[in-house]
Design brief:
84 residues, mainly alpha, 2 helices
Amino acid sequence: MNDTPQPHDDQPEPAPKKPLINSLLFTALGGLVGVYFLVDGALMVRDKHGNGVFALLMAAIVVIVGVLGTLILKSYLAERAARR
């Protein structure tokens, strides 16, 4: 007979975590593709409407990318802190 006590598995196993770098990598690559198309569209507008409209569009793109980048960075830092 086996006299060794069996360990009790009262605690469920933690769910596997998705790799942090992969989610950040896909987000960053998607953002770069999006910025490319925004700038490409602004350059097409520049040909028709001049430099003034182009400057306004580029300023808006910079603001949008800055805000989204800040949100992604905060999300990344919060997720990294939660993993520790």
